[in-house]
Design a protein that fits this description.
about 525 residues; alpha+beta; FAD/NAD(P)-binding domain; D-Amino Acid Oxidase, Chain A, domain 2; 3 domains; 8-stranded mixed β-sheet; globular
């Protein structure tokens, strides 16, 4: 029986302290934190883990420099704190990176004022990153020749951080941590109903990944964590639960294109509406985005207008040999950010839409025993996990002694031991597409200590050390390990979330790759059919 089937069996008829609904970053960190503190936890998501908002981020781990414009100092302080902790806890997965911001006539403030703000931001961040610097237009041109500085008034360089892999894989790390601590978790499990009876929640679930109609699963829990992201309000309404906050949606898109600069920096610009957008490195590609558009739809997708706008903006701000067109787009990301507002006050939302930040709020309904998580972002995940622990204590649950085993990479000693063995087996070589010093680093940051199992597979059969997809840096041995550990039910789970292959390769190239059928075979999935 595979891992997912085992967890479905544990769900059915099981009783848990906490049922967490939603397997994005908020639900995943909640499951990891609570299971590490001794509670019995069940985590479900109606799709794959991190298959909605949490797979559509900019992959940035940052303190929110732009929130200083609206004087949200407590938010920036907390985000910087979490960023610093994440940098220390994930030394190979999360990397400090320079931002080079070019400020021209579309910037809402002068370059010198931005430099003062960058200095203040560095201080709020406890001087944890490299110090900022004011840049003249000539200095920007020398540092990043691809930037168009014709109308630039100057700029700044400052440091934040980003994920070397992808956001959805980072979320999976927390799901794995929860599983390792004894939690029960399953993707593609839909909550059909949940009713509180005599202080206990009784939930009916449905396995949506089965080829055959499946009988409903029944679960009971003493409390619920509503971590459904953009869908939290709908769940609360179904339970007649009133809250002080609600969610509104901002749509953000990214376009992945061929690499625009050889440097490992983020290029920042203000678009014609005065909003920030970036060029962000992703392996051997560049990511352009993001937009910020109010929407009432959670799944609108990327429109022709979205593409045209971003391409127009980036072409005006870069000195390229030829302008980017839609033919250069390798893949796209589109997601809605759940932004938190008061349940009343529509007029204020219309007026202050662009000033809404990615702050989070948490509400506890003690009579219904429901904790609702509103908003939030990847950078804030450690703060969110710790606040959830405090919230369940407020509901009367007894947690075991504090520990930080629910997050972070294994020890440096364990990493160096792995590196030594991996390099002795030939994995000291540079990867083909990933930004890393060696393939040993790539394997470690994807799998942690489980990367030792990858080496064991290769020692038993050298062919398992071969790439499964051309120019992918993904080894057959990794696929075998991920099949056993990561609840992969479709090729999309693997290509889009457990890895970023679909983002940096594109579907047409994947369809043409002879290794795709082998990948499906290794994952015990049906042979893929070409996309139309």
């Amino acid at each position: 029986m595979d891992l997912r089937a085992k967890n479905l069996d544990k769900l059915d008829g099981g009783h848990f302290d906490i049922l967490i609904i939603g397997g994005g970053i908020n639900g995943a960190v909640s499951a990891a934190a609570l299971s590490a503190r001794g509670l019995s936890v069940a985590l479900i998501d109606r799709g794959d883990f991190a298959s909605f908002t949490s797979q559509e981020s900019s992959n940035l781990v940052w303190g929110g420099f732009k929130y200083l414009e609206n004087y949200e100092l407590p938010l920036v302080w907390n985000l910087c704190s979490s960023r610093n902790r994440l940098l220390k806890a994930y030394p190979t997965q999360i990397t400090e990176i320079d931002f080079v911001a070019t400020l021209d006539k579309t910037a809402p403030f002068p370059a010198l004022l931005a430099a003062v703000g960058a200095l203040g931001y560095w201080g709020i961040g406890r001087f944890f990153t490299r110090p900022p610097k004011f840049l003249s237009a000539a200095a920007i041109e020398k540092l990043e020749p691809v930037s168009n500085t014709t109308t630039a008034k100057g700029g700044i360089r400052y440091a934040d951080a980003y994920l070397r892999d992808n956001d959805a894989r980072f979320v999976w790390n927390f799901v794995q941590s929860a599983l390792d601590a004894g939690a029960t978790a399953a993707n593609y499990v839909k909550l059909e109903s949940a009713t509180q009876i005599e202080g206990r929640w009784e939930a009916t679930l449905r396995d949506t990944a089965s080829d055959q109609p499946a009988s409903p699963l029944t679960v009971t829990a003493d409390a619920i964590v509503n971590a459904a992201g953009p869908f939290v309000d709908g769940l609360n309404n179904s339970w007649d639960l009133e809250t002080e906050h609600r969610i509104v949606y901002s749509k953000g898109i990214h376009l992945i294109v061929p690499k625009l600069t050889d440097s490992e920096r983020v290029l920042a610009f203000f678009d014609d509406t005065g909003r920030l957008f970036y060029v962000i490195p992703m392996a051997n590609r560049s990511v352009i985005g993001t937009t910020d558009t109010r929407t009432d739809q959670v799944d609108e997708g990327v429109t022709d207008d979205d593409r045209s706008f971003l391409l127009e903006q980036i072409n005006a701000r870069l000195d390229l040999d030829k302008p980017l067109t839609v033919d250069d787009i390798i893949s796209e990301r589109c997601g809605v950010r759940p932004l938190v507002v008061k349940s009343s006050g529509d007029d204020q939302i219309e007026t202050d839409w662009t000033s809404l930040s990615r702050k989070h709020e948490m509400e506890i309904d003690r009579s219904k025993r429901v904790i609702t998580l509103f908003g939030g972002k990847l950078t804030d995940c450690l703060n969110m996990g710790e606040e959830v622990m405090e919230a369940v204590e407020d509901l009367g649950f007894k947690l075991t002694a504090e520990n930080d085993t629910w997050f972070g990479e294994p020890s440096e000693a364990a990493r160096e031991t792995f590196y030594a063995k991996a390099k002795s087996m030939g994995f000291g070589r540079k990867p083909k597409i990933e930004r890393a010093e060696s393939m040993a680093e790539v394997l470690w940051r994807r799998h942690g200590e489980a990367a030792n199992q990858v080496l064991d597979f290769i020692e038993s059969d050298a062919r398992k050390g071969e790439e499964v997809i051309q120019n992918s840096d993904i080894l057959r041995a990794e696929v075998i390990l991920m099949r056993e550990r990561e609840m992969i039910t479709s090729l999309e789970d693997f290509l889009r979330r457990r890895t970023k292959l679909a983002l940096i390769t594109g579907q047409p190239a994947l369809d043409a790759d002879p290794g795709l059928a082998k990948l499906a075979e290794l994952l015990a999935l049906p042979t893929p059919q070409p996309h139309p």
